[in-house]
Write a structure and sequence with these properties.
29% of the residues lie in helices and 26% in strands. By secondary structure, it is of the alpha+beta class. It has one domain. A 6-stranded antiparallel β-sheet has the order 1-2-6-5-4-3. The protein starts with a helix and ends with a strand.
């Protein structure tokens, strides 16, 4: 009986240890609750972004991240995939955006981990972009910088 109690106590301690370790090590939030993209891998392959957004044409370069996050800590699998980044497009697609979409001034800033040279970009929210160039499975926002022909996106699947 004594061995059984010792085994149960050790098992409970082990489970608590695993539980605490798991949730402390997989967090992507810092102490203020803000995202810490420095811990996330940045990808630069155009094919993945083209696959997710097939109607975005003339992609010259990309820098993006994706992160599968459970909505509830008790969930057995990811509830959504967070997906964000920068897409540099060519002249023709840039003109198409200006022709087909309404741009609204915004004060959003791009996280510097996504930019190659820590540039400040003046971004305009693209109002109609999701309805024209993306699928409904992506829920997020798109912003555009006219001077550098950059689309900034942040959202989830």
């Amino acid at each position: 009986m004594r061995e059984k109690n010792r085994f149960l106590i050790l098992l409970c301690v082990f489970i608590v240890f695993i539980f605490i370790f798991n949730f402390s090590s997989c967090s992507t939030k810092d102490e203020r609750g803000e995202d810490s993209l420095e811990k996330i891998t940045i990808y630069e392959d155009i094919e993945s972004v083209q696959f997710k957004f097939p109607l975005i044409k003339d992609i010259k370069s990309v820098r993006y991240y994706w992160l599968a996050e459970p909505e509830d800590v008790r969930a057995s699998g990811p509830s959504y995939i967070r997906f964000g980044g920068i897409i540099e497009v060519g002249d023709d697609f840039s003109k198409e955006i200006l022709k087909n979409c309404k741009l609204v001034e915004s004060n959003i800033k791009i996280n510097t981990i996504l930019t190659k040279f820590n540039h400040h970009y003046d971004l305009f929210y693209i109002e109609d972009f999701r309805g024209i160039y993306t699928t409904h499975s992506f829920s997020g926002d798109f912003y555009f910088n006219k001077e550098n022909q950059i689309i900034y996106f942040d959202g989830e699947y």
